Amino acid sequence: MSSQQIPPPLPHLQRIRELDIIRGIAILGILLLNIKGFAMNSGAYFFPSLYDHFDSLSDKLAWFFSELFFAQKFYPLLAMPFGAGLVLMARATEAAGQAPGPAHYRRMAGLFVIGFIHAYLLWYGDVLTDYAVCGAIAYPFHRRKPRTLLVLAVICLSIAATLWFAIPEANSEFDIEAYRQAGREEVTVYRGRWIDHFELRALNARENQTGGYIVDFEPLGMMFLGMSLLKSGGLGTPQNRGRLRRLAAIACATGWTVTAIGLIYWWLSGFAMMRSCYIMWAWLFFGGIITSLGYLAFIRLWISRHPLPGERTTLECLGRTALSNYLLQSLVACFIFHGQGLGLIGSFGRLGQLIIVPMIWGIQIILTKAWLKYFPQGPLEMLLRRITRGSPRAIT
Q1: In a domain, 227, yes or no
Q2: 60 with 16: CB under 8 angstroms?
């Protein structure tokens, strides 16, 4: 493709700088959730009682508050600007006189490949493959009206919620000590060399990709919602701050309450019944969606009260390099916890894990700002753009 055929960079107003800020906050926030996937065995991600460091009150409280404020809140916050970005990219390509479809599907194919490599070579908990599939499904609807997109969002989220109660294992019980022992063996494997835990990581990745059908409908629904909000002006400067403030407060209070009900129910169940755990996660699903909308409203209020300076803020930088930073988190966390690095997996309780998160944030911020002094986008963003349009030039 010649340089004359490459669409021009999007102007700042069209791109909407606020989307980068939302992405930046989401990227930081998801590490508060993902850290347990690096620091513990895979089963403990969903069943906290399968981890040996879960007997103290401090770790139970760390689990409770991290699930209350972070779990299932920041991935929806990441999916909404992803959906909005699909619309903006399509508009930019059309403005250049080209058909946006082929470029979009090349981009999703590239994202899928990056996610696949991430899952099998680095960390099994990858979501990029899910986002690529959902982005491919959502794209044909990018011309639809905001109301239609909102209806599609509700349908997808309703399906996702229903599927929580259709999981066969949800009605069974399990031997917690047997699962704990399997978790200890998994930790031992991950403390070994990278090649030694490749088979286990591949197994976990395959289970995550083929058995995580619930995950597909949730980000798809949030992408539709992001597309709807962009088209209806819901991601621009708020016209009525008072109404938005009330919406933010009500959404957060409602979402936190719903989440707390599920967490308390699971706690009182003794952390042992499979059924009670899935019921807890169903409550977290509903609470997370509602709370993420409250967080989005608070972010918009914050931006409206603090006009953006000419230079990019730290959060904008992180959001602009969200893909690269997502994988950077995995690189740093795998070095800290897996055997190819320090091998500290299984050494920290829930509270200790949360203390490590700001350290990783600091590394991300330093490296991101240094990189953007010389390059317009993150390395993986540039690679994805080359796959999509045949040029690494940034969309700014």
Answers
A1: yes
A2: no
Average pLDDT of the chain is 86
Chain centroid to CA 74: 6
The total domain count for the chain is: 1
C-alpha to C-alpha distance for 353 and 243, rounded to whole angstroms: 37
Buried b (16+ CB within 10 A) or exposed e, 211-246: eeebbbbbbbbbbbbbbbbbbeebbeebeeeeebee
- How far is residue 335's CA from residue 344's CA, in Å, rounded to a whole number? 9
395 is a domain residue: no
| Whole-number CA gyration radius for the chain | 21
CA 227 – CA 146 distance, rounded (Å): 7
Q: What is the mean pLDDT of residues 351-378?
A: 95
> 282 or 10: which carries more pLDDT confidence?
282
CB atoms within 10 A of CB 309: 8
Task: Give domain status of residue 396, yes or no.
Answer: no
Residue 343 in this model has a pLDDT that exceeds 50: yes
CB count within 10 Å of CB 1 equals 10
Say if 394 falls within a structural domain: no
Tens digit of pLDDT for each residue in 130-174?
A: 999 999 999 999 999 999 999 999 999 999 888 876 665 555 566
Of the candidates 28, 6, 9, 12, the residue with the CA atom closest to the CA atom of residue 315: 28
Both tokens of residue 107?
């981009």
Amino acid identity for residue 248 in this structure: A
- Domain range enclosing 94: 3-389
Q: Is the Cβ–Cβ distance between 138 and 86 less than 8 Å? A: yes
The token duo for 243 is 């109404």
Decide if pLDDT at 78 tops 80: yes
132: part of which helix (H) or strand (E)?
helix 128-138
Q: Give the 3-state secondary structure of residue 124.
A: coil
DSSP class per residue in 326-359? HHHHHHHHHHHHSTTTT--TTS--HHHHHHHHHH
* φ/ψ (deg, to 5) at 56: -85, 155
Those residues with Cβ within 8 angstroms of residue 239's Cβ, 6 or more apart along the chain or in another chain: none
Task: Specify the range with the lowest mean pLDDT, choosing from 49-58, 187-196, 247-256.
Answer: 49-58
Cα distances (Å, whole numbers) of residue 250 to 130, 219, 254: 30, 23, 6
